Amino acid sequence: xxxxxxxxxxxxxxxxxxxxxxxxxxxxxxxxxxxxxxxxxxxxxxxxxxxxxxxxxxxxxxxxxxxxxxxxxxxxxxxxxxxxxxxxxxxxxxxxxxxxxxxxxxxxxxxxxxxxxxxxxxxxxxxxxxxxxxxxxxxxxxxxxxxxxxxxxxxxxxxxxxxxxxxxxxxxxxxxxxxxxxxxxxxxxxxxxxxxxxxxxxxxxxxxxxxxxxxxxxxxxxxxxxxxxxxxxxxxxxxxxxxxxxxxxxxxxxxxxxxxxxxxxxxxxxxxxxxxxxxxxxxxxxxxxxxxxxxxxxxxxxxxxxxxxxxxxxxxxxxxxxxxxxxxxxxxxxxxxx
Length: 338
Ligand code: NAD
Ligand code: TYD
Hints:
By secondary structure, this protein is of the alpha/beta class. It is built from twelve helices and twelve strands.
């Protein structure tokens, strides 16, 4: 049943709320007048600074731990699950953590939703559809799941648990599948913040393979607006794609160099990612029919505003880049760049 009868003033548990998209979503719900609890394990990607100035109740813990979920979810009317291991390259280096959080953790949350008869919204990804051939139509929600990486396979495992819980136990659960998301506070391992911050530092920009891969770019506020709409108006058992604007990676790299003033000599074509998907493209008609209208254009302002945020907030990303990150960067890029 949609939750539109309780438009605001809901009590919501946001898991993974200290991450990039989750923290923006918490900010959005609080501004709408909802009461928000956050459950976050504070992995390398979780950052309490992302929630500074936002009123919420914070619980540090693992979504795969039923006792932690019981404590954090007490009294809530819905769970929105952002908590996940999220980076494809890290999943290639070690998939186990992805299964534990993205599959098992999702199942623990679903059990809570089942036993307390509350709504569960699963924040998933367009990557579960696998790559879409160039020239083929963007895929709708009934396209087959053809996950390519350990990351997307683990997200697909979570999605299938959600749909199984709806069918088997009649749980009020639904799924959004968002495109590549960009904006402030994204951990600088992902393509855009990695390349933007490297360009500011004068470091190399490691383009995988020929750089002709294509992604849809979705502003974090538009993504959160889509998730909020699905939470309040979506139907149980349904999947809603949240698409963006499709661009080739090398076009994005050129724009980043323009906006940061970085030298084209920084670009290095390096060994490709194993199993690299060439293209993602999703059809968001179903969410648009619920009333979703993205407000941000990637080319007219969206990317530029993001570059400006990283230029103005070096105190956010510089400490990240000097910690655990350095070890990861070495493992992932040292031999590629040598
Ligand atoms: P992120 O990596 O920035 O944040 C993930 C958050 O989850 C962190 O705060 C981390 O501490 C927390 N977390 C990880 N494991 C946990 C566990 N076991 N228990 C509790 N908390 C845990 O991720 P993001 O980019 O904000 O992505 C959020 C969600 O959106 C993910 O589910 C991801 O699959 C999905 N998604 C992301 C994108 C994107 O482009 N970033 C696109 C589509 C969908
Ligand atoms: P990424 O941000 O990891 O997201 P996705 O989950 O879609 O792979 O990467 C976006 C695109 O950028 C993808 O085609 C891989 C490419 N990429 C590089 O070329 N170099 C890099 O160092 C990274 C991290 C990504």
